[in-house]
Amino acid sequence: DVVVAAEFRDGNVPAAMSPLTCCQMAFAALPQGLGGYAYRGDSACHEWGLLNWLRDEKRLGGPQGRIEFAVSARMSEPLRKASVKLAEKHWATLGQPEADGTVRQWAELDFVPAEPSEKKQTQPLRYIGIRLVKAQGEFFDDGTRAKYFAVLSNRQEKGDWIVNWHRQKAGTVEHVHDELKNGLAAAAPPSQLFGANAAWFLINCIGYNLSSALRATAPDASLRTAQLKQLRFRLLHVAARVARDRRKWSVRFAASSEWVKQQIRLFAIFALRTQPTG
After folding, report:
1. Which of 132, 138, 137, 157 is closest to 75 using CA atoms?
2. Is 175 helix (H, G, I), strand (E, B) or coil?
């Protein structure tokens, strides 16, 4: 739950344009000595410059070794035809039916696209098809009974495991955007200057990471999933009086002793130059 890299771009720049730049910044920001690396993304990450960089174990500008990944595939017409023509016996049910009765299924697809700048030693990626099927006699809004999607990956696990692992990213970045814009102030750029607004957005990302650290270390377990509004109300929005007596500064909080004890525990977690006393 940490923003490791952010790229502030013009609003008319499509999401699939040069995704490798932000990806490289993200991997460069990770601490050294990690046991392994993995990457998952939506269809904007289905871009061969990024994918070839991820599967090159001697990549430039990134960690050496294997990076396991899974990204949503853009549903081209050849990929859709490969999904539609697959025999019914190859489709396996994935999890429980949804509330409206829609069944989610998966299958290994026999699909090898013509990849730009493909190297001779490059291993082909797996395409795992996903099919959403309505109950007999029911249709989606566009009049079809089935919808087709796909995930492409270099992982070796069973297809249903990869699909579930890939789906675990769903909603995470949307949650971050919601908190940045509504819980913080990223929705109100302060200037007409692009650079100033980019700096403003980065400051909000830093604020989000600080709030994430507070959530992760809060002594009160109920704050672990709290949104910023609740976090501010319960940890920060407390009146206090600052008093100075010679070389001693004191802060008197208009709060309960339990709140003060919680703040002292929080201060003890983070390495500060001065520590509060009871």
Report:
1. 132
2. helix
Task: State how far the Cα of 130 lies from the Cα of 84, in Å rounded to an integer.
Answer: 11
**What's the mean pLDDT in 126-135?**
88
Per-residue pLDDT at 204? 95
Summary count for the chain: helices (H), strands (E): 8, 8
Phi, psi (deg, nearest 5) at residue 270: -90, 135
Q: pLDDT tens digits, residue range 163-192?
A: 999 998 877 888 899 999 999 999 999 999
Q: Which residues sit opposite 158 in a β-bridge? A: none
What is the Cα–Cα distance from 150 to 119, expressed in whole angstroms?
23
How many CB atoms sit inside 10 A of residue 181's CB? 13
Band of the pLDDT at 264, cuts 50, 70, 90?
confident
Q: What are phi and psi of 247, to 5 degrees?
A: -100, 15
Least trusted range by pLDDT, from 34-48, 103-117, 237-251: 103-117
Q: Are 208 and 184 in contact (CB under 8 A)?
A: yes
**DSSP code per residue over 8-58:** ---TTS-TTSSTHHHHHHHHHHSPTT-S-EEEEE-GGG--HHHHHHHT-TT
Q: Distance (Å, rounded) from C-alpha 38 to C-alpha 43?
A: 17
Determine the Cα–Cα distance for residues 130 and 70; give it in Å rounded to an integer: 13
What is residue 154's predicted lDDT score, i.e. its pLDDT?
Answer: 94
Q: End-to-end distance of the chain based on CA atoms, in angstroms?
A: 32
In order, the DSSP letters of 151-164 are: EEE---S-HHHHHH
